[in-house]
Structure formats: C-alpha cells, structure tokens
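Changelog note: in this version the structure field was regenerated for every chain. One regenerated record is shown below for reference.
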Amino acid sequence: MKYLLGIDLGSSSVKVSLVDAESGRCAGSASAPGSEAPIKALRPGWAEQSPDDWWRYLKEALAMVRRHLACEMDIAAIGISYQMHGLVCVDKDMRVLRDAIIWCDSRGVPYGEHAPLPGNFTAAKLAWVKEHEPALFDRIRYIILPGDWLALRLTGTAATTACGLSEMMLWDFERERVSEAMMNYFGFREDIIPPLVPTFGEQGRVSASAAAELGIPAGIPVAYRAGDQPNNALSLAVLNPGEVAATAGTSGVVYGVVGSGKRKVESVDCVNALMRECVSADVPATKAITQSHNNAINIFLHVNHYLGVMHCVNGCGIMNAWMKRQVVPTATYDEINSLAAQAPEGCDGLTVIPFGNGAERVLLNRNVGASIHGIDLNRHGQAHLLRAAQEGVAFAMMYGMEKMGAAHVIRAGKANMFLSPLFRQTLADVSGATIELYDTDGSIGAARGAGLGAGIYATPKEAFASLQLLGTTEPRPAQAVADAWQRWKSILDKQ
C-alpha cells in the first residue's frame, strides 16, 4: 500500500498524517508534543521557537504512526504545511543561527509601519535582526520560512516558493519575482533569498541521514509545501474565486480566494488543469494588494497563484486554551464545550476581548491585549467565562470578515475550536454564513497536496474525491448573539 505523508508544522504541535494514496483516506495520524509546544517570550511581544524542537516533534509523531500501523511505511511523496511568516536564518553550512522568530512575534511592528507592511511578517522581523543583531545578520546565507527549514532538514537543499515570498512580503506581484523595491528599502542582499521551487512538484528528496533519523526510506520526494492557511484552504478544496475557508487553531483565520488577473501558475499539469476550470474574478492584483495595506486585510499568492485574501486573529484558540487553564484546567475540551453551553447566549453581559497574543493586523498592528468586561460576581460563573471566550473569538473573526465582505458559505475542518458546536453556531449567527464542516485537517491536506505535486492525482477533483462533508450549521436570527456582538464592538472601539 502506497501512502502520502502530510506534515503540519504548527506553533502548538507538529502533526503528521498518512493518507492511502489509492483511496484518499487517512490511515493514521499523530501529533507531538502531547501538550502545547512552548513559545519563548524573552521580552513582551516576542515569540520564538527552536527548529530543533520541530524536528524532535516530527520524529516523535512519526514514531507513533509507525507503531499504530505496525508495518513498513511505503511513502510515495511528502507534503509540508507550516506556520506562516516565521523567520529562520541559516549560515553557509545550512546551520540555524538563532531560534526562529515565529508568526505572532511583534518586534517588527515599527519596521512594518514605515514600509508599510504587516509588522509581524518575515521582512519586518528580518529588519529587526539587521539592526539589533548585525553580526548575526552578516553571517546569514539564506532566510527561509519554517516549512522551508523542514524541507531543508529533510532534503539537504535550501529553497522557498513564490507563495512563501508573498507571505514574507518580499514578492513582486506584477513582475513575478523577488521584490527589488522591498529588498532595497530594507537593505537586504538579494542572494539571501534561496532558489525558488514550485508549490506543487518535486522540491528535493529525503536524504539518507534524515531517513535514518525518521525511520523512513531515503529518496522520497518532497512534492508540495505551503503556509498553513493557504494549505487549510487547499485541504477544504477552496481553490476558486469566491470560495472561503476558515480555521480556528492557535490563531483564527478567514481566507477567501480572488482572481490574480494573470492566471500564471506552477508548471504542473494538474494545477494547469485546475486553472482552466476556474472563473476569473474582476479584482486586479495591484488593487487588491494596495487595499490590503489600507484596511488590515492581508493578500498572498494562493497555492494555485490566484490571490488569497486573509484575515487573522492571533488570539483565537490560545484564548480558549488560556481560559480553560484558568477555569477548569483538568477538563477536556469536550467537557469545556459542554460546560460553556450551559451559559445563555450573550453570557448575561459578560464580554471577552481575545487579542492577547501580540499585535493584530486587523487592528492596524495595535496590541490591545485580552480583557474581560462586565463581570457580575453574583451571576457569572465558570460556564459564563468559558462561553464568553468562545463568543469573543467568534466576534473577533467576524470583525475582520466585515472588512473582507460577506461570505455565504464558510468551509472548515473538524479540528480545534470548530469542534465546538457553540463556537460554530455563534460564528454562523453573527456572520449569516452557513458553516460546512469537513473531515480533514492541515496534515491531510498537505498529504493530498503531495499527491498532486507527485502526479499521483491528475486533478484536484481526483485528489479531493474522498473529502467528506460531516455536517452544516445554519445561521439563525439570534437576538442575544446580535446584542452581544454590538456590545463587543462597542468595548473594542473604546480601547
């Protein structure tokens, strides 16, 4: 039996899934570490992780899957999904020079405000390194993203993608190359950008040394890589203009697809076939990108080189996890969801603002923090606090959706906060959109992406033939939710 290996390198864990290449079904999944991976915050607003820890988590997760299958893993191709916007610096020997500065780190905000670009994206973080760690900056051979580093560790070859450069804010959308304007603005050498590889297609093969560490055969092609949000959209078959995906892990994201105006894609037959099936949208790339800098919505190249329009809330699942730890730390998330549902909609006036995980692009790079409002010591208890956290996250996602425009259907995978019926219903009620829940996640999507990149699947339709709709949540005319939403906005506007 041939398998496709999908790796999802998140900030909370590394998850792997083996997908049966013939049936498209997931044969086994595991993640590590068992609890949330630590994030180093050496100063307020900072967030770093060690790439060596990512590799250790990958080895642990693969070992668990191997024990589950109890057989040799015949892997045809590997796909990688990764936490976006991180900065990994490697020297001429491809050794990591410092801990990775990850997506929720805010130290680059002042540099982004002058560019202008999002302060927690890779280019602004590198500008911080250039000013504050000049000796280290001079030793940099390549800057790469977390997924690029994982591919480097697997194959021994440093590379990135056009999609990756767009999330670094170092891609020229018009000329379709590294942005000379941004590189010159920050004073970056152009040779610190590694060679480009296609999003879908062979990007290198697993080396003998990496294979020995992971317990897999050498020579397996790495055939796909993408940031976690474009990959989440791929995993939900959100590929055409007008389609919308969402996720609610550590961060919460609503991600829509619009037309690029150029229709250029990677030179892989299956992706070219996809593009011929797509309908062009009337949003030129330059206009969309300009608007994104003015209204707190981010624009990237999607995996098929249409444009991905994205709103991100840093304090999403991390807000829910924090509230769980403070209120009922020994409970499971299923128990948390059941307890939260005992409180009424609107939580009897209790409101949670969840922005406590760094500067928020949707708030124009402000860091307003997380806060709890309206506590009545005679009325509010555990259930109110838990429900208010979930409602607050749903409202924060809606806050960005108002800037993106209306969505009629939102697709999501059965994972993280979308496992909560309360959260799904609140988001549906406040947005007016139907929530479709699918049996997939980022690691499964990465595995199917690898199947496309390796030519195992001829078309996206074939790759996602086994994608299952598990259920829908329809919006309701819920007055208590509408009132709570208006109260939430009023509190935020005063901060």
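Spot check on this record: The chain is about 35% helix and 20% strand. The CA atoms of residues 344 and 384 lie 8 Å apart.
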